[in-house]
Amino acid sequence: MNTTTPETAIDDFARNLKAVSGHPHLVADHVAAAEAICRIIADAAPRCVAVAQIPAAILARVEAHCAEHQIEFLKEPYPAGDLPGLIDRAEIGITGAAFAIAETGTLAEVCTNDAVRIVSGLPRTHIGIVDGNQMLLQLLDAAPRIREAIQEHPKGVTLSFISGPSRTGDIEMVLTLGVHGPETMHAVVIGGGHGE
Amino acid sequence: MASERKAKLEAAITEAIDNPKQRNALYYCMKRGRDKRTERLDTMPTGAAFRPEVKAIKEKCIANQDALLAQFTANAEARGTKVFIARDGADAIRHTLAIAEEHGYKTVSKSKSLTTEEIEINYDMTDAGLQVVETDLGELIIQLVDEKPYHLVFPSVHKMRDDVAEIFSKATGKEVPPDIDEIMRVVRSYLRPIFLNTDIGMTGANVGIAETGTIVIETNEGNARLVSSIGKCHICIVGMEKIVETVDEALMMVLAHPVSAVGQMPTTYVTWMSGRSPLGEGGENRASHIIVLDNGRTRMREDPLMKEALHCIRCGACMNICPTYGVVGGHTFGHIYPGPIGIPWTAEVHGLETAGDFAELCISCGLCKEICPAQIDMPTMISEVKRRDAVKHPPDFTTRLLMAAEPMAKLGCAGAPLSNWSLRNPAFRWLMEKATGIDRRRELPPFARKTLVKRFNARTPKKTTDTPKRRVAFFYDLYANYNAPELGLKAIEALEAQGCEVVLPPQRACGYPYIGYGALDKAQDVAIENVQHLAPYVAEGYDIVATEPTAAYCLKVSYPKILPRNPRAKQVAGRSFELFEYLMEIADDAPKPQDLAGRRFGFHCSCHQRPLGFGDGAMDWLRRRGAQVEFIESGTCCGMAGTFGLKHGPLGYDLANAVGEPLFDAFKKSGVDTIVTESSVCSIHLKEGTGLEVVHPLGLL
After folding, report:
1. Fold (CATH) for B50-293
2. Ranges of each domain in chain B
3. Residue B229 and residue A156: Cβ atoms within 8 Å?
4. What span, in angstroms and rounded, lies between the C-alpha atoms of B685 and B691?
5. Whole-prediction pTM
6. What's the CATH number for B592-701?
7. Which of A123, B99, B163, B465 registers the highest number of CB atoms within 10 A of its CB?
8. How far is it, in rounded angstroms, from Cα B190 to Cα B194?
């Protein structure tokens, strides 16, 4: 039986995300987060990276990395007329999440523009970023955060719980990743007493 | 002569039995779902405690559906979503086509939605000139070959990689090798332009939330995120019963659904849409529609015996455990909604006649109820569907005969030993098979010349103290009375040895065959009579103890359910026990003679015994006497299902054996010397299927 406590929450998140084929990165601060992301980008060697609603300090560093390595870098604002085709060019999509859930290895992305959803939903690789202090212990703890997000955005808002990459078992029950969206999913957890 | 309908069903069963490749795939799919569920429940601090919570939420929300629907509609519309209440499928389709026509939409990308399958909207949209593509891989596979879902969660589980490669070779015009990774690459590039150029993104919803006007969509592939975010217009078609009141309640569904389906928590992508957001900067407002489908749901809510079907959260767990579904699959055991829950749903939304085509596949083992996250009593609902169907299609002679087992047993006893000689005579059994439909290969238990009641009354009355430890009214049922009175006497003696005073109250056999075969009214008559007999004993402080697991199940579970307004049925249920559960409860802790030391038994728990404690009482009783006991199961029924496996033909003996194969193999591989079971009918099936000795624990006394 697994019981998550505040002390073990971030480690539990990491373990539970790994169990659903995700890759956790526990880092101390925004600088370390940007470094972790740049390493992922360097390993994947993409031609194009797209980002949406990520912390400014991380954005600047990742953008600089991409510029240095001649990687096309897409960021907000995304003109409506260019979507969804523009983001479809990206091989890596990076988005910020509002909170996470330790028990299930889940990132919760809250967005009021669907460009964010396709940045995390179309590319082969998705990197989600979350503040380790926004870690809920259990799935059922999420109700107040969901309600709050909905009430804060009376015109429309979409929350996406993301627990690992796109998966299917539709052929012979063989687990296969990336049938539509991300084949690889990383979660970068900042702070909360951890560092890589 | 079999009806055309039955002949068709039997032909489909035979075809399924003769297709081991497909059966193995389905068996593996179901077993994996069950095993993963169990693994997950073991890791959850509260285990399966969500089940009564889900049931309570669904009960409350269905009872308040009108108010919740109004609240949901108001909150969704406040966020710019247009909500349309469709009274039936045609209404929903008309509304969808009107939206498409008004805006000149040409393409529709769908994510998996059983509600849209229910109304078969794809055909109408295609006829109207729309290009409709299912984007869930399993749904896409069956769409390309124009088939219905084989399984609720895994609609294309019957298609192997070779089949799928061939399907995509045809769809793309290029040779696709039968390699899963390669097929995935093909699917990804096949669907990508379809996602990107979607006019209408169509989804279902797993939950609607009244307090916020939110819809919740779960997918593992992430396709619902793409179709709902990219499409110029989003149309969500959601069954009315999916609306809950609060976010907390929705979260409970989000937990219960994938845990029950495949032991996952939660589904990889859970999308909570509250109104629709723009896509990029400077674009126009994008349309958002929710179509709430009634299609008979309001009527179901008013039907006391069917309204529980509205509690279904579409997890598919019931079909993961259903023994006969596991052999024949969803094309035979289902119309659009497959499996156990598919029977009441089909009866209500696609008609009684269609449900009746496959309702007989339910053998009333009750396992679906035990696994259902909403604790839906499917067996009773299915029994009612059979009863309603029987008005036009009366049960065949064999079924009527098996329902009337008690008078037959009385005749058998009266005619013993001639009746027993006949049962052992091959020529007689051949004739009997032709005349009655009871398979001649079944070794039927002999009838006793003197019934248990006669032998009990004839024995020297047991001296009882003025203050017996317990007072027991023994419920012997059919087998112990007519076939194995020595077993009944051993049970009585075992109780007396523990200081109980035992009496035999007047009673009828429990009547479960009436429930199983759909004569719910007759089952109620038996239940009323037995409750009338037993309630005065309970009032005087007697406990009711039964040896046959199904009889104990009837007393404890079925009677209060089928006699909901009879308080005495609940009183009887509250004081009814399965024999070994009871013996262990009253046993002292003194060491027992180790006369079973060195014996290694494999224990078979009958389906109806599972909710009564999984046979723990009997296993503990044997272990305390030195025996080594292993609980051996296939995870589902042995296939006998009472008298079902006695019937000759595909819808009986053949299917029972196909269901039993994995269990027979498990026993044979286990190396145990003897099988122990408390069920008289499972015992026959296991003996024939394994060739091993099968005994009742009382036989080891």
Report:
1. Rossmann fold (3.40.50)
2. 50-293, 398-436, 592-701
3. no
4. 10
5. 0.95
6. 3.40.50.1860
7. A123
8. 8
